[in-house]
Amino acid sequence: xxxxxxxxxxxxxxxxxxxxxxxxWGTSQPQISRQIKAIEEEFNCQxxxxxxxxxxxxxxxxxxxxEIRRWLQHTEQLENNIRNSSGLPIGKVKLAVLPSTAAPWxxxxxxxSKERYPDIQLEVREAQGNQLESWLEEGRVDLAxxxxxxxxxxxxxxxxxxxxxxxxxxPNSPITAHPTIEFSQLDGLPxxxxxxxxxxxxxxxxxxxxxxxxxxxxxxxDSLSLQTHAVKSNDCYAMLGAYAxxxxxxxxxxxxxxxxxxxxxxxxxxxxxxxxxxxxxIKKIRELVKEVADxxxxxxx
Length: 301
Prior knowledge:
This protein is an alpha/beta fold and 301 residues long. It is built from ten helices and 13 strands.
């Protein structure tokens, strides 16, 4: 079992392209192809099939992937544990975040990490909530910065802050002209929301039934950029958190009103993969995220 060879296999799984992996490793596509072929020949199996867009896992490849991921993680953890015996945090920490939190949070976390712990490699990915949960469960990331919908913490998350929900509308919209708007006023309003499955959508459905409100979703999009541009150009509205709302207001001139009666709070939390081990490097990154959260700019309440 060659670590680098199997690491290449996982990289191809994630990127779905031999050429992209070659570019990442600074080598040629034929070299990556030879490494994959060497594995297939040694174990007499086919791991990938070519498609018009790159490569996809075979059934055998899909069965092997989670096992290889776990083996790589254990190998990396063993190496980091040996190095951490010196008392210095070292190694890679994989952190996943929501797009709405990436820019304001991670730039500062990264700066502090490089300043205080230069031997930590911080790898950051962006995705929506359900994808973050999947990555945590599969062990693809060590930590995830995401929103929870209840302050009842049963999963061992590190809760950071809570944030209100805002209705974001076109510039100069009379509906979002005031600082607040009641939830009942959303009845029948054309809305853009994240795609299903979505725990956020499920929660809003429960509230809508409770308050006899019809949520008229005219566009489903997991992209914040698509949602906010749709709001600006198509006279629809979005329900977003403080950071995303403020960013849309500054960049696109959109208007925003905090939703009340009821107020819809979300809780920003830092979750850890159940398959990981709390290395010193992970512990230090958790502490940095908490430190940045405590200095959170206005907008959370």
